[in-house]
Amino acid sequence: MNNHKMMLTRQQLQQQRACVSRRACTQKPRVSCKVLSFFGKTPKEVDMERVWRQADAVCLDVDCTVTTSDSLDLFAKHMGVGEKCRALTHAAMDGTVDLTESLRARIRLLGHTRIEDIDRFHELYPPETRLAPNIETLVSTLQRYGVHVYLISGGFRELIAPLANRLGIPETNVYANEMLWAMRTTTEHPEDRVLSLAGFNEQLATSRNMGKNDVIRDIRSSKNHRTIVMVGDGITDLETVIEADLFIGYGGVVERKAVREADECDWYVYDFGVLEKAMRDRKLRVAMVGSGAWACAMMSIVAANLRESGSDGIFDPMASMWVYEETVELDDGTPTKLTSLINEIHENPKYLPGTHLGDNVVADPDLINVVKDADILIVCTPHQFIEGILDRIVDAGGVRCDARAISLVKGLCIGDNGAQLISEMIRKKLGIDCSVLMGANIASDIAKGEFGEAVIAYNDCTNAKIFRQLVERPHFDITLLPDVAGAELCGTLKNIVAIAAGIVDGLGYGSNTKAAIIRRGLDEMKRFSKRLYPDVMDATFLETCGVADLITTCYSGRNRRVAMEFTQAKCKGVDTTFDELEDRMLNGQKLQGVMTSNELQAFLRDNGWEQEFPLFTMINDVINGRADPSVIAAQPQSQHE
Q1: Nearest to residue 235, comparing CAs of 226, 247, 246?
Q2: In terms of domains, do 160 and 80 share one?
Q3: Helices 578-585 and 592-607, interaxial angle, to 10°?
Q4: Shared-domain flag, residues 411 and 519
Q5: Last residue of a domain, one of 280, 306, 326
Q6: Bridge partners, residue 377, by sequence
Q7: Is 639 domain-assigned?
Q8: Is the residue at 641 inside a domain?
Q9: How many C-alpha atoms does 294 have within 13 Å on its Cβ side?
């Protein structure tokens, strides 16, 4: 391949992409900083470190980057053709020979290879003997920070897979060539057949020059990564400057002059320890959006974890919390801003008195100031306000492109376009990944340190592991669950069933009736969830976010308590409404079950599903005065098999 022609193509493609640069995190053109100075850092070097720390995906070449030798060369040595293979490899990595042609030639050298030879190779050269210095530490650190790590190699998956396993990199994150095998006769006897190497899959992008760009482009679009860094030693790695946001050349095994001196090489290192330290200098900033009882309970947990993470931890020890500004009266009647009071006494005396939030929590009434530089957003507000809050954030410029969110909001947005999960709304409006935390959690009990558990339901397991580090405590156990829709709908719909449980208590009925209501409620929760999202897991309803949260909410919590008060008043002939009781009993907090019931019922009515969900329908009739509370005890079975 003509190297000058290749460079010209790269420059042309970069120019074409200049007006739609993917480097949204930096909003700066690519700059080259070369080898880090031993006598301090230049502004360009600092800029490259900043991009490195913003990465949400790091792609590593394998041969002579992750490993101390080329895997195919080492295997060729094992097969007795090492010198010839090494020469072909060197030519491809220096850019003097086309990669595909080099692979063909090397495979021809190994044409007599049997599948047993691969197994024997791994026995003689286990992964721990082949890894480059500090690479395991680097990968581990990247994963702690929630950075996705990929292996992109012009080598072969058969030789690389054990390395990925050793590094804890999922098989789905490995992009490499694949050998082709065929049964061959080794003697004149037809029965003497063995599985032998017959070539390689030339359709894969990794088998050709510039192909790693196709891989990175696919990773970016399919995984929604914003900032991707490529690290490698050879020309085929340097080619990725077209698609990668940062290219780091590595010379710790082989120093290739063509790579080190290339203008396109942004940063050149000889030791992965340099990159690992630069990543450890990154501290993730946490922001809480909300300041109600549950937000404050979680903030007390988060603040404790931030304090204890220490200098080696991944989090900034300080956290910010957006507080909707209100005026509260002190014991002596003096009016005081709630934000100022929280920052003075480090607790929220209105919504969760007596719970210490932590000296490292700063309350701020400016929503945009709280979220603009946050790496992690914890969203915990009444669901009826969430869309307006998100719109304000978007109008002000949004959040960091590499931020991630976790929603504690229990609710469902019902609009002209149907039903939408709160986490879906956050993802779409802010353009970032959003997990959810749901469980059998009463805010005051968790804040007091009573044992509880929750699930973090996720789309991205790497982000979920970050959130678990942030919220798990000895008294607060976290399970990771790959079912966002199931967990979120459980947390939403159980508030409606809790109203029915409160009605049962208000009527003075016993455990039989309440158990029946809970059982029927769980059934309708499950059927409705799977109607909207068929992939919802049955097992989710047996998790703490399912039946456990339902039981807890039906025996305590504000929805059950207000519904009981409503029913008792009705039994006494006192006319009242849920709105009146919310104002009187909840000290400014919101009754999510009533609003969710009204939204859900409109959705059921529009879709003709009311008869299929009779408990939900009956609860809504009671809420809105269309039925007496006593009808709950005579609830008929729904019409379903």
Answers
A1: 247
A2: yes
A3: 150
A4: no
A5: 280
A6: 287, 405
A7: no
A8: no
A9: 21
Question: Total domain count for the chain?
Answer: 3
Model confidence at 630: pLDDT above 80: yes
Q: What is the pLDDT of residues 349-387, one digit of tens each?
A: 999 999 999 999 999 999 999 999 999 999 999 988 999
Identify residue 25 by its one-letter amino acid code.
C
In contact, 241 and 260? CB cutoff 8 Å: no
Distances (CA, A) of 117 to 63, 75, 184, 443: 20, 9, 15, 60
Work out the average pLDDT over 164-178: 96
47/507: higher pLDDT: 507
3-class secondary structure, 270: coil
User: What does the block give as tokens for 103?
Assistant: 């692979």
CB of 387 within 8 A of CB of 330? Answer: no
**171 shares a domain with 302:** no
- Give the pLDDT confidence of 584-621 residue by residue, as tens digits: 988 777 778 899 999 999 999 999 999 999 999 999 99
pLDDT tens per residue, range 474-487:
999 999 999 999 99
pLDDT on residue 635: 54
Q: Which residues contact 114 (CB under 8 A, 6 or more apart)?
A: 194, 195, 196, 197
Please report the pLDDT score of residue 224 as a whole number: 86
Tell me what the pLDDT averaged over the chain comes to: 88
The answer on 48 and 176 residing in a single domain is yes
Based on the fold, state whether residues 141 and 248 are members of the same structural domain: yes
Q: Where are the alpha helices (DSSP H) in 401-557?
A: 422-430, 443-447, 461-471, 484-507, 511-532, 549-555
- Between the CA atoms of 589, 592, 598 and 604, what dihedral angle is there, to the nearest 10 degrees? 170
Q: Which of 230, 255, 280 is the endpoint of a domain?
A: 280
209 and 75 inside one domain: yes
Q: Report residue 560: phi and psi, to 5°.
A: -65, -40
Task: Tell me the pLDDT tens digit for each residue of 93-121.
Answer: 777 788 888 889 888 888 878 889 999 99
Cα four-point dihedral sign 435, 438, 444, 448: negative
Residue numbers annotated as active site: 494
Asked whether the predicted pLDDT for residue 35 surpasses 80, the reply is: no
Pull the structure tokens for residue 182. Answer: 């065929």
Question: Domain containing 601 — which CATH number?
Answer: 1.10.1040.10
Tokens of 141: 């650190």
Q: Are residues 275 and 297 in the same domain?
A: no
| Tokens linked to 351 | 């919504």
Contact 62, 151 (CB under 8 A): yes
CATH number for the domain that contains residue 64? 3.40.50.1000
Asked whether 240 and 59 are in contact (CB, 8 A), the reply is: yes
Q: How confident is the model at residue 191 (pLDDT cuts 50, 70, 90)?
A: low
